[in-house]
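Retro notes, item 3 of 5
We never archived the inputs for the adenosine-5'-triphosphate complex last cycle. Fixing that now. Sequence and ligand:
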Amino acid sequence: MNVQPQRKRNEMGIYARFGSIARPKEPRFEDNGYGSVKSLVEWLNNLFPYLNLPSETTEEELRDCLIDGTIFCSILNKLRPGVIDMRTGFRPSADYLKRFLDAMDEMGLLRFVLEDIQQGYMLPVLQCLGTLKEHLENADIYSRKRWEVREVELSNRVDQSQHGSSLNLDNFVVNGEDKKKNPNKDTYQHGLISSVSSESSPFLLLDAGNKLSEMLKQGFYAEFLDDNIKDLIKSISVDNASTHVLFRFLNQILDESIDKKDEHAYHMARMLKQVVQVIEQRVYAQVENLKDQNNLCSVCSGKYQSRLKVLETLASWSTEEIEALFSHLKQIKMDKTGIEEKVRLKEKDLTNLKEEKRSLENENSALKRELETLKRIHEEHCLQIETQAKETNQALEKKTHDLECYLMDSNKRVKQLESFSESKLEGWKKKEETFRIFLNNHQRALQELRTAYASVKQEVTMTKKRYGEEFYDLGVELEGVVHAADNYHSVLVENRKLYNEVQDLKGNIRVYCRVRPFLPGQCKKLTTVEHIGENGELLVSNPTKPGKDKNRIFKFNKVFGQAASQEEVFLDTRPLIRTVLDGFNVCIFAYGQTGSGKTYTMSGPSISSKEDWGVNYRALHDLFHIAQNRKGSMTYEIGVQMVEIYNEQVRDLLTCHAVPDASMHQVTSTEDVLELMNIGLMNRAVSATALNERSSRSHSIITIHVRGVDLESGTLLRGNLHLVDLAGSERVDRSEVTGERLREAQHINKSLSALGDVIFALAQKSQHVPYRNSKLTQVLQSSLGGQAKTLMFVQLNPDPDSYSETLSTLKFAERVSGVELGAAKSNKEGRDIRELVDQVSSML
Ligand SMILES: Nc1ncnc2c1ncn2[C@@H]1O[C@H](COP(=O)(O)OP(=O)(O)OP(=O)(O)O)[C@@H](O)[C@H]1O
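Structure as it came back at the time:
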């Protein structure tokens, strides 16, 4: 049964409640005639000794003890064994209490509602407890009575057995006909009926069922039983019993019938029990249905009642009032619509707020996470800082300790210093005294010195004046000396010029000596060149054999040291080269052993850089330059030939043919010359590759032919310039080389010897000059002798290994430098002479 907490309870209960709001002052339990709390506590202690409740237990304490419902269920189970199954499926408190209250309802007993005990409203609870106490005490009385009846029956049976009658069930049947046999029948029946009839309640009906089953077990006959049941049923108030109780009563009867040995009755009873169970289920279902309908009906009737009241009220109203009501209703409706709109807006707001809340929550959780991370980082950082702080602290402590030690040391030192300074102060004081005396002495001396200084000063002034006069006289004299020195230089230059002129007049072959620097990888410590003098002196010696060869001095026109540049070398050669433009024949040849720098001086290491240019390029460049300058008065034609003499064969390097007369190539600029020379060098290189370093074993000759015409006089000038890079002059030992090498060596030796012979024949002014002894002398004939100007570059290798070659080269050069070829003559042809020659040639 569903009990509403605020429902008015008066149909079966004793109390009525109208909600917890206006609860009247709670009456005391004793005031309701159910005894005192103390008596109930005492009763409970007797019933459940384990509770051991104190006699002064308050209502509140009792409530605490009862609220889980266990005690109530246990009491009810004592009253009706098994009415509440407390073994399984129970949860404390509410479950127990609900089951208890349901059971109380089924038994039709006074009970409280769940909220009473939960809210501490103990009066109905205690009343219920009092009711239970009463019932349990009554049940005990009844039980005792029943045992008394049973004892009487048993004694009767014992009596009958003692009187010899058989002990069968018939003897125990108590019916109307055989009342005499069983004088206790009435007594029992009376006792039974009186006990139940006095209790006109469904609970007693169940008890009656129990009693009846016991009777059957004990073997009462059917007639007796029927009568008894009839009487029993008549005696008890069945009308008041609940359907549930009635079904249980019926089931008990049927259970007892099944227990009986009679097979027919057993089957009938079982069938009946099944039928009764089905009916029971249906009735219960019906009851549940009816309950629901009833609830529904009561709700509906409540509604209708209220509506009816409203309608009744409306009916009593006037038309105006109804109209006012309608307008009011309309207003309410509009208000309702507005409110609904507002509600909708609010809901929308709510949704937005929820959204916002969700996003805020998300944000919050993100922030929390971030906070966590930051917290963790912060903690780590704190840890780090702590560690650092500890370390710093330790370091500081150590430093402090060190400083303290240092301070102690310092204090000691300060004390030492103090004592030391005191002793020093003493010393200084003594010294001060000494100095004071010393100073006095010095001041006196100073005074004397000042006096002396004044007289010295006067003397110095006098001397200064005298010296000034003397200096002036010296200056005048020095001026004359400077003038004389200037004259000396100009005289020196004049001398050199005169010397050169004398040389020119004599027609001496000029010899310039050039010492090659050490090459990378060569030992620079030892050199054969001991000294180079300003006026062309050269001192050579053999550093590896100092004692053997004495120092030798040679003298040439000019000696260039290892540091001399290409420019410097050319500057001393230029005046000679320029005479070619004036109609002179000039021959410049480089002589020396292989690797002594002949090619370097004549051509230069490379033609790409102007600085590296040798005499050849610089000479031609210079010729073009001067020709250009003389453009107004002279016109020049310049032609170039380039040949190589190898093994006494002349090869034209510009055409790459072995021909008797080399080809002539006109050039007008330095670029033309560079181009031609490149061709010549390339052709020589090709041959060199084919014939294995032939350049060292061949003579290369560049011949520059200059033809100039004086624009004013018509005079014709012809000049030749031979630039010769000779083959290596070293003597080759015949036993060391054979074959081609020997042949090459022989040819070189022959041609150089022929050159020497020509030069010396010229020097001795022989009638016969052997030009034809070699190709070299043949080619150079026009420039050797015959009023030509000749310059020889003697190239030296300073390496001590080359000492003997150096020496023989220098000896040869010395002899050459002494050769007088006679004054050079210009190849000039006047216009008249030329015209006459032309006329003669045309006549022939
Ligand atoms: N004045 C110098 N300054 C620097 N290096 C030089 C000089 N003279 C010669 N040399 C170097 O010495 C080496 C030999 O020089 P070079 O080839 O001119 O000798 P060479 O007498 O012409 O030899 P060969 O008879 O074999 O032709 C080259 O590597 C050259 O660059």
